[in-house]
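I hope you will forgive my troubling you with a question about protein structure. The full record is reproduced below for your convenience:

——
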Amino acid sequence: MGLKVAKFGGSSVADGIQMTKTKQIIEADKERKYVVVSAPGKRYDGDNKITDLLYLCKTHIDHNLPYEQVFQVICDRFMAIKINLGLKVDLQKEFEVMKQNLENGASADYIASRGEYLSALIIAEFLGYTFIDTAGLIVFDAKGRFLEDETNKKLGEELKKHERAVLPGFYGSSPDGTIKTFSRGGSDITGAIVSRAANANVYENWTDVSGFLMADPRIVNNPKPIESLSYKELRELSYMGASVLHEDAIYPARVANIPINIRNTNQPEDPGTMITAKEIIHENQIITGIAGSKGFTVICIYKNNMNSERGILRRVLGILDDYGIMVHHLPSGIDTVSVVISSESVNGRLTELVQDLTNNLKPDSIDVHENMSLIATVGCGMASRRGVSAKLFTALAGADVNVRMIDQGSSEMNIIVGIENKDFEASIRAIYEAFVT
C-alpha cells in the first residue's frame, strides 16, 4: 500500500461546499494519509482571500486605524464554514488569542499564518484526522533561512506517530518560536516538505485547474493539457510564466524524486499533470508547452573583436550588478552580446545604465530594444528532432512577427525568442498551431 500527501489550495477550502469536495476526494483514496491545506481563498470574483484580510488587519493596526471590522469579516467567514459543516471546533477561543496577539504587536508572519492554521483545524475535525501544527517542525534559522535537513528529521519523526493528519501550509518557526512564513508558494512548499518527510509515493497538489496546459488559455483557444512533464521542463515553463506551480515550490519533493500530480478539486475525475524526474519523449508530440512573459528590455552591445577582449562579460555583469539588475538571458556572438533584463528593474535608469556601459566597455555601438517579450518553446524531445527551429521560425514569419533575439539552452530543451510586446499573443498562437494542431 502506498502513501500520498495531498495539498489543497485556497480555492479548494474557500467555503463549506469546497471543503466537502475536499473531504470526498481524500476519503476516495485511503492512501491520502497526510493533508496540507491553504487558507480559504476567493469564493467568487470580487471576494477576498483570507490571507489578504489578515494582512489588512495588521496594516490597520500598524497605522493606528480601526481593524475590528476587517477582523470580524474573517471571523464570520470561518464561523460560517464551521456552521455549514456542523463542526464543534472552538473557533471563538482561537479568535480571542489572535486578537490579543494582534493588539500586542504580533508579526505580520504570525497574522498571515492564522488563515492556514484555522483552515487546518477545521479540516482535521471534518475528516477525523489528527491536527499537526507545523510550528516547531518546519524550522528556520535566526536569519530566516529554511533548515532543510533539520525539518526533514523533526517532521518525519512526528508524522510516524500519526497514521493520518492535517497540517497547515505556508509557515514554520524560528529558533525563538516565532512564526516564520515562506515567501512564495508557501503551502505548495509545505506540501513538498511533508511529502519528503513522509517518504510519500506521490505528492498531489489540488487546485482549481486540471494541471498544466500547453499554452495560456487566455491566448490559445482550448489548448491541450500536458499529461506528463519532467522537473526540468517544469522549471523552464514556470520560469517563463506558466503559473500553475512554481518549480521552487516543489524542490523538496524533487530532491526526494517524488512524483507530483497536479489535480483539479472541481473535476477530480481528470488525471491532471504528472511531474517526474524522467524525461518522456512522445512519438507524436515534439514540444511539451509554450510559455512567455512581457516587460523586458534588450540591450545589444557590439564591439569589433569582442571575443579577443578578456573580461568584457564580467564587466557587463558587474555594471548590471551595481544597479541591482538581474540578467535573465545573455545570448552572445563573436562581436556581440545581448543583455535581457526586466524593464521594471531598470526603474527609469536606462539612459544612465547605457552611459555607464558605454564609458566602461567602449563599444562600437549599443542598441536598446524596449517593450520586448520572451517566449519559450519547451520540450525534452526537441533535441532529437530535426527541423524544430525551422518550423518555429517559419511559423513566426508566417504570422508576420519580427524576431529580435534567439537563445537556445545547451540542453536543447528550449528555444527562446525575443519579440515586441505587440506580437506576443500572435506569436504564441502561431507556435502552438505549428506544433500542436
About this structure: The CA atoms of residues 75 and 92 lie 8 Å apart. The longest helix spans residues 108-127. DSSP finds 14 helices and 16 strands in the chain. The mean pLDDT is 92.
